[in-house]
Automatic annotation (TrEMBL):
UniProt-recorded name of the protein: Glycosyltransferase
GO cellular component: Golgi membrane
Cellular compartments annotated: Golgi apparatus membrane
A GO molecular-function descriptor: glycosyltransferase activity
The organism of origin for this protein: Ziziphus jujuba (Chinese jujube)
Length: 433
């Protein structure tokens, strides 16, 4: 998997190197022309003067050979030069735009191509069992003016227009350290810490961790500095919006997570939101039919209900599409009006269907493999007690079910990285309150 990613990276690089070589050649050509025009207004070879002036073009012919040395001629050359360099910069801009378009096209072609027929002309349904509805929404056109400074940072940090993003203030400093150490160990280059205070910004810089500190913003910042867990969680939906507006896919990550493999090798990228689950087995993670029994109804005592354990709003991959941005807005608006848990709101907005006086969100969603993107209930209740499951290496482990986060994170590192087989043993399945 890693090889494939690298391969396409190198391909991109190869193309842009070729393009920039052409660009450099054009620029050198124009510059050389300017220099020679200044140094040798009569042409390089005096004997060739007639031929030369014929080649120079209509405006020069009008001047005639006698006026070659006049100041007008020099002015004219100067204006030629300036119009040439203007044209040159126009061309370089075009090259840049086209390069960008090509890159976007290549990135999106897999899913996009599959859906051309759905988005395009109206069409007949096709044979039984072959029909597929729209799943992968098109990405928005990036708007750099939303935040030029962030755009510059992301250009440097992101790989294939995607990156891991975590928000952190100094309350979570020690967990953040375990977090970025695990990311570095795996060798993931595209991650960014959004520092909510100076201490975290300096801490990241000192540790060579890509960091971004937002411009001061009243209201938002008072939450950022002093806020507990849930208040900061609400803030993240506001901040995430800018990343999506700039055209980036974000893997939003809490800091109570240990990385053991590169998550970008394990995503499908076919949905607006691809999230880890709070579920602990196939049923709870992927959905099941829960039968509700009401004996007094007699013949109709059984009512079937659709159930799924919530998506974890501390670890999800979100593509820069309109439904994704609508989701972030809806969650942020509700959190600003109600005293609610962001994860509950996130799931209600994602899953509740439209109904009278309510328009539901039309977002595509995918649940990540709960053994690869493992929550701490799965690890401590099931996996560590099962000889076979113990051998599997997850992509991440999220200590979302336990309050003693730091010590369990360190134990996860000991167990999966340092191979200490009994590292997980001292902990109870659940917390004792
Ligand atoms: C781009 O972002 C700027 C700044 O937020 C905004 O004023 C502008 O309307 C946006 N452009 C479009 C086309 O949405
Ligand atoms: C759970 O689902 C996976 C496929 O998603 C399947 O391979 C596995 O057998 C299922 N496990 C159980 C216990 O049903």
């Amino acid at each position: 998997m890693a090889g494939r990613r690298d391969g396409s990276l190198m391909r991109d690089k190869g193309q842009s190197v070729r393009r920039s070589r052409i660009l450099v050649a054009i620029v050198i050509g124009v510059l050389l022309g300017c220099v020679f025009a200044f140094l040798f207004p009569h042409g390089l070879f005096i004997s060739d003067r007639r031929k030369q002036s014929r080649r120079i073009g209509k405006s020069d012919l009008k001047m005639g050979i006698s006026s070659c040395e006049s100041p007008e001629r020099i002015d004219m050359l100067r204006s030629d030069i300036s119009s040439l360099s203007q044209r040159n910069s126009e061309l370089s801009k075009q090259v840049k735009d086209l390069t960008e378009k090509l890159r976007l096209a290549e990135q999106g072609k897999d899913h996009a191509q599959k859906q051309v027929s759905v988005l395009g002309e109206p069409h007949k349904a096709g044979p039984f069992g072959t029909v597929k509805g729209l799943r992968t929404n098109p990405t928005v056109i990036p708007n750099e003016s939303v935040n030029p400074r962030l755009a510059k940072t992301l250009e440097k940090v992101a790989v294939q227009n995607e990156l891991i993003v975590a928000l952190a203030n100094s309350n979570v400093k020690s967990m953040l350290e375990v977090w970025f150490t695990s990311i570095k160990r795996v060798g993931i280059p595209n991650y960014l810490v959004v520092a909510l205070d100076d201490e975290i910004e300096n801490f990241c810089k000192a540790n060579d961790v890509p960091v971004y500190k937002r411009d001061p913003d009243e209201g938002i910042d008072s939450i950022a500095k002093t806020g507990g867990n849930h208040a900061v969680s609400g803030l993240k939906f506001r901040i995430l919006r800018e990343f999506l507006e700039l055209g980036y896919s974000v893997l939003l990550s809490d800091v109570d997570i240990v990385y053991l493999q590169n998550p970008f090798d394990h995503l499908q990228r076919d949905s607006d939101v691809e999230s880890m689950s709070d579920g602990h087995n196939n049923m709870t993670a992927y959905g099941y039919n829960d039968v509700f029994d009401e004996p007094s109804m007699g013949w109709a005592r059984y009512a079937h209900t659709m159930r799924i354990w919530v998506y974890n709003s501390g670890f999800f991959y979100i593509r820069p599409t309109l439904p994704s941005i609508e989701l972030l807005d809806r969650v942020a608006i509700r959190l600003s009006r109600e005293k609610a848990w962001d994860q509950a709101v996130f799931n209600e907005e994602l899953f509740f269907p439209s109904h009278p006086a309510y328009d539901g969100l039309h977002a595509a969603k995918r649940t990540l493999d709960f053994y690869l993107f493992m929550n701490s209930k799965v690890l401590f209740k099931t996996v560590r007690k099962d000889a076979k499951l113990k051998k599997l290496k997850p992509v991440i482990v999220h200590i979302n079910y336990h309050p003693d986060k730091l010590s369990r994170m360190k134990a996860v590192v000991e167990f999966y990285v340092n191979g200490k087989q009994n590292a997980l043993d001292p902990f109870p399945d659940g917390s004792s309150w």
